[in-house]
Amino acid sequence: MKKTILLLMLLVALTRSNITAQSTLSGYIYDAQSSEPLIGATVFDSLSQTGTSANEFGYYRLLLKNKGVSLQVSYVGYQNQNLLIPPINQDTIINIFLPPSVSLATLTVVGNKDNNIETIQAGKVNVPLERLKGIPSVGGERDIIKALAILPGVSNGGEGTSSLLVRGGGQDQNQFILDGATVYNTGHLLNFISVFNPDALKKVDFYKGGFPARFGGRLSSVMDVTFREGNKQKFQGNVDVGLINSKLTLEGPIGETGKTSYLFAIRTTYLDIIQGLAGNSPRAVRKNKKETFQGYTFFDINAKLTHEFNDKNKLYVSYYEGLDRFRLMQKDNGRREFSDFKNLISNRLISARYYKIISSNFSMNTGINYSYNASKNKNYLISQYNSFGNKPILDENQDNRSNYLKDIAGFIKFDYSPNVHHFLRFGFEGTVHNYQAHLSDYSSRSYTSDSTLFQLNGALTNPILRGYESAVFVEDEINFTKNLSINAGVRASSFYSDKTFYKYIEPRLAMRYTIPNWFTINATAARTVQYSHALLSNEIGLDKLIWVPSLKNLKPQTANQVSLGIAKQLKNWNIDISLEGYYKRLQNLSQFIFYADFGENIYQNWQQNILKNGRGEAYGFEFLLNKTEGRFNGMMSYTLSWNNRQFDGFNESKVFPFKYDRRHIFNTYGSYQISGKWKIGALWTYNTGFRLTTPNGQLVDVPFFENKQLLYTKVNNSKMPDYHRLDLNATHEKKLKNGHIRSLSINVYNAYSRLNPIFIYVKKGYTNFITKEVIPDELKSIVLLPILPSFNYALNF
Amino acid sequence: MKNIFFLIAFLIVITSLFTNCIETDTDFELPFEQTPVAIGFLDSMNGARVFVGKNVAIFSKDSSAVKGATVSLWSEESFIENLIFLDKNVFISSPNFKPLPNKNYSFRATVPLPTGLGQVRKDSLISEKITLPTTIPIKKAYVRYMNQRKTLVNIYIQIDDPVGFNGYSFNVQRFKKDTLFDDEIAGNPLYIPFNGILTNDREFQGLEHTFVFENVNIEEFVNRRSILMDKIKITLFNLSKPTYDLFQSLRTPEPGTGDPFFEPTIISNQLKNGLGVFGTYSSFTYELRL
Q: What distances in angstroms separate CA A226 from CA A316, A617, B255, one per listed residue?
């Protein structure tokens, strides 16, 4: 710790010699039409070749050396503003209003042309939301996580089985922050759609390496999402109707002063109604018209209230509520059995933040937030196998299981720019986690038409485990010269749970050096600590993360990661190229023991059913080619990676490939603006198949065992068939006479209907009792979506 | 407008058709590597029983049995006896062999396997040291009736758990004299405590512990006539760690029989030059009159 602080002081001292008399130019950058702050808008002085970007509140700050400046202010989707400012000798506030691009896009810009301000933080990706409109998606629903998954080093686990996987990390190792609050469940509709409603998003920053010290609590990535504040000048709305889901967004000012604004967005699906049209419904099962029903519904609400007391004091209140419900109903008249399974996942976030500009170079951001994530399974089974006398006996069983995680957190953070070379951030944050890994109640009853033969009721509840997590951090963004910049920081974090106190120092470093007229070198090093473990289980295909705390005998997970890369901007071609290598070591990983008997309720006794102190190693190379401007824009990414795990006493303590050890991941995406109205896009993705454990033989006729016994001898010894698919979309946008913009888009997911299996299994053979035909064992695969065409109709009013 | 309506209707139909997952055949190739297999047990009641053979490919109709295998029993480096070949490729010890607890034994199995087109015989020698665990007596066992008809009972079994790892398996049998459920009917001589309750002493290491079997049905029906059992025989097996691990790993449900998303168990392997386990267990039997 001392060494790190000394290093920071030395870096500050090294740059102090350049300080001359200076003044500060600061202010907000707004959308000229809605007065919404433009988070991440860039301000660049072409004379001194220095610049900055607006922070998460749209506030920028530029230190001047008593010289005139020629400012270029830019933001994706807006017209650039050029400002010539004469020499100033006192702190000055200038609020800048950028007008949106003139018309329907005939020229698309989806990156940060001509400035590298955003890339000072190596390992950070500013996700251009504009690009989302062009990326084909499931059911036409633009999705931020799907857009991230085409970046190098990032992938989805697979259809319906997981969320984001970053540089060899697991799906629990990514931190999703929504207006300052942590989101624990990020997927709707079997993770085909993320919980982040694209119509409510303002900015998304994604870090896959070189994490700034202000972020902590996860090992592999950070996705920092900011909601829009809503139009401060007039009421505005958007309605988007699709086949799978629809959205409504309303926003506007409250009162006439333009000081308060709101945003409200709601999204819901009606997939079950669509399925009902094809005769697939619970009613059809009850009436014996179908044997099985699978239904899925979800909704989410995003709301935000912003109040501006004055230019220096702002208050933000954000709210998110989401619910997913999956239902599987089966009726087997042959076996006289009926089952009804429901899975509910709910998410709730509330955050309140207060932003204060203390002085021209010093600001404070403080707030509190609440995050709740719960999963509940309801299982009902009724069957008739026996009879009592001549009366049939009905066995009725109900089993409800749930788990949740509830967080209450508070933070205070400061930004301070002592001079043109330094931008300091420091602060404190604390969270109280409440983990409930298992709650259940059950009832079992056997009865005939006139009497109850057996009845049993009960409930099992694990104690709530509390974890107290806190951290202090300091980071400094240092610009030594216009070609060399460093973000150095340290985070001191601690966790108290189970009468055990853990504390860690997490140094962070990200460096960027540009060789003029040649290329840029990026290097990062970071240590990260994760105090919450997520135990992954899978119930009828639904990934379920059960969050549990670090305990006396379950150490916090840690990761050390380094990366080194080069990047080049081909300005004449509007193309960015980068190549990066990374190496990551993971420690104290945990997972359920594979042979944990699910029938014995592993969740209740989870501490006895997990592997601990696991180790992981991931390394690879990433290549990215990105064209950000022009009628045609797109990107191509390739990742070559290795990813292994090791647990003592498991797999003979030998190293085995991680489930998502994918050697090759290739994505290419392109979008072409045919005319002012028509735009087409295509995305092709290719992943090496994920790993799975398959039997490498069986024992037949062994008298100790009644049946054939499959032999599983090595973990993740097989590889699924490679995954690939092509998605297409076409969008037609038209400005109506009343000034509203109407768009109609058609999407085709998996256009050539590639049968990508989500799992493979041996289907047991049987003898048909009527025909006496012997059906042998067969190898089968399950495919979730062979092809899915859809359309969306959207109206901006 | 009419065209748009038809397009929407068409897309609704297509979407509704494709929002269900589908099961298809696959040309996925399961890995297969032929390995000698030996699974043997040494227990205080029955002596030694060893199966030797091979694993076979998943869709093969071949048997795991191989011809020409031999198994011998050793104590430290001293030869005790060659095991006797029984049906189904199982070898058993002679009737006068009684293993002693805490004494080191070893099996040595020779398994001939074809190695390719020429079917050249290649013998694999599989050997492993084993120790019989101590017999753990049941201190006390009793029942409580759980319903008015006295057809359901809770069974309580009290033991003193010795220090060190102990795996437990139970065989709870219910009997009624002079009926179909009579004690005198012979059981399977190759029975091993593979099915039934399996647990270990992680949560009560070195302490007194009471196992509870809840709502055990002691009523059976024959020709619609109710028969209430009059005796419960409890056999408590103390399993060595390799035996416990093997049973635990083999008990995981197979894909296709239940949840196909399950994570399979890695079969616990203790042997070099082959696959399998030489396990040991001791047993103690307690009778309860109802």
A: 11, 32, 43
Counted across chains A and B, CB pairs separated by less than 8 A come out at 217
Cβ contact B260–A714 (<8 Å): no
Q: Distance, in angstroms, between B148 CA and closest chain A CA? A: 10
A704 close to B (CB below 8 A): yes
For tokens 């396990």, the residue is B279
Tell me which residues of chain A have a pLDDT lower than 50. 1, 4-20, 103-120, 540-541, 595-600
Q: Which of chain A's residues have a Cβ under 8 Å away from the Cβ of B237?
A: none
Residue B231 has pLDDT above 70, yes or no: yes
ipTM: 0.78
Average pLDDT, chain B: 79
Quick check: pTM over 0.95? no
Question: Which residue pairs from B255-261 have beta carbons closer than 8 angstroms and sit at least 24 positions apart in sequence?
Answer: B255/A761, B255/A762, B256/A761, B256/A762, B256/A763, B256/A764, B256/A780, B257/A764, B259/A538, B259/A539, B259/A540, B259/A598, B260/A759, B260/A761, B260/A782, B261/A538, B261/A539, B261/A540, B261/A541, B261/A759
Lowest mean pLDDT among B42-51, B60-69, B121-130, B159-168: B121-130
Closest CA to B217 of B249, B247, B174, B259: B174
Residue located via tokens 């140094």: A507
Distances (CA, A) of B59 to A693, A703, B55: 17, 20, 12
The pLDDT, as a whole number, for residue A548 is: 93
Report yes or no: B82 and B93 within 8 Å, Cβ to Cβ: no
> Inter-chain contact B18–A785, Cβ cutoff 8 Å?
yes
Tens digits of per-residue pLDDT, B23-36?
777 778 888 888 88
**Which own/partner pairs from A618-621 qualify as long-range (CB within 8 Å, at least 24 positions apart)?**
A618/A167, A618/A168, A618/A169, A618/A582, A618/A583, A618/A584, A618/A586, A618/A642, A618/A643, A618/A644, A618/A658, A619/A168, A619/A581, A619/A582, A619/A583, A619/A584, A620/A153, A620/A167, A620/A168, A620/A581, A620/A582, A621/A579, A621/A580, A621/A581
Q: What angle do CA A420, A424, A426 make, to 5 degrees?
A: 170
Question: Is A697–B255 a contact, with Cβ atoms under 8 angstroms apart?
Answer: no
pLDDT for A387: 66
Residues forming a β-bridge with A204: A225
| Higher per-residue confidence, B107 vs A708 | B107
Partner-chain residue, chosen from B31, B215, B266, that has the shortest CB–CB distance to A651:
B266
Contact A277 B147 (CB under 8 A): no
Residues A700, B34: C-beta atoms closer than 8 Å = no
| Residue pair A384/A394 in contact by the 8 Å Cβ criterion | yes
DSSP label of A479 = E
